[in-house]
Amino acid sequence: MNKKATFGIWGNTEKKIFWEVLPKILSWSKKKQLEPFLTSRILDHLNFSNRKAKLIETEEQLDELDFILVLGGDGTFLSLARNMKNCTTPILGIHLGDLGFLAKVTLKDLFHRLDQVAAKDFILENRMLIEASIAKKNTLIKYNALNDFVISNAEFHRMLNATVFVNNHLVGNYKADGIIIATPTGSTAYSLSAGGPIVTPEVESLIITPTAAHTLTSRPLVVPASASIDIQFSQNIDPILFTADGQIHETLSSMNKVNISKANFQINLISFTDNDYFQNLRTKMGWGKRGESD
After folding, report:
1. Can you spell out the DSSP letters for 178-234?
2. In a 3-state reduction of DSSP, which class is residue 250?
3. Res. 275: pLDDT tops 70
4. Could you tell me which of 130, 145, 127, 69 has the C-alpha nearest to residue 103?
5. Which CATH homologous superfamily contains domain 129-264?
């Protein structure tokens, strides 16, 4: 007897539209004979009444699912990505509202795409993550990010003064509002708005982008994904703010040191043969357009 196919649902329960779409997905899964597993945030919500629904109880359980649906915005997607660790389960992002860059599916084509996923008519995109190791007093703190790490002075009116090394070679001293270390996935996020390059996901690399650099010679730098980036700080610039994917915050002092490198795991994004990265750039970011179209 074949094992019943299973999938997970990870969603932004604060969005009203989530609760409108969820019953439709659960109804679809019943017709397709797929067994859904939901997070405790969904199951414990006042809007959810199906007490027989299965719970995703552990991170290891994520790896046993056939695929995972992420319902929300890019922020919801980022929160799942950091929790995947060594889990290779394919992820499909579904946007509930404005178009984001990580989600492949809109509500308009939701069930057409879900039917494709159920039929295994999809391709996988491998996306690298980055890991930060922060030497703080006698402890080593580690964080992962799919998009980026941002380091800035916690007092917005003060400049960050940081020295950057790549593979133990001095790159230079950055005097700027902050420094972004981004992945190719994150190259279309904060790094782009700070003047960084767009790097396609297939080009595994790390992007170092200063924000509002105080010298004309500070420019974005792309290094191989195998590189090890060390960041040290000049004294008397405390406190320093470290942020992972814009969602996790850590306060540092000038005595702390930060090392950033490629994480030892990646995530698998579900995509489709008719989905085009550059078309997404044109549609979602206005790439290649000059002025307003007629």
Report:
1. EEEEE-TGGGGTHHHHTTPPP--TTS-EEEEEEES-SSTT---EEEETT--EEEEE-
2. strand
3. yes
4. 69
5. Probable inorganic polyphosphate/atp-NAD kinase; domain 2 (2.60.200.30)
Query: Which has the closest alpha carbon to 78: 106, 55, 103?
Result: 103
- Cite the active site residues: 74
Both structure tokens of 261: 């490198």
pTM to 2 decimal places: 0.91
Q: Which residues are within 8 A (CB) of 224 and not within 5 positions of it... i.e. 6 or more apart?
A: 204, 205, 206
Segment of 57-61, 67-71, 94-98, 282-286 carrying the highest mean pLDDT: 67-71
Helix or strand run (H / E) with residue 268: strand 257-271
DSSP conformation class of 17 = H
Residues 6 or more apart whose Cβ sits within 8 Å of residue 108:
none
Domain 6-122+272-285 has CATH 2.60.40.1120: no
Q: Tell me: the pLDDT tens digits for 207-228?
A: 999 998 888 778 999 999 999 9
Which two structure tokens, joined as six digits, stand for 208?
Answer: 């170092």
Among residues 57, 277, 90, 50, which one has the least CA distance to residue 185? 277
What phi, psi does 57 have (nearest 5°)? -95, -30
Instruction: Fill in the DSSP letter of residue 47.
Output: T
* CB of 63 closer than 8 Å to CB of 87: yes
Q: Cα-flanking dihedrals φ and ψ of residue 45, to 5°?
A: -75, 145
Angle at 5 between CA 268 and CA 31, to 5 degrees: 115
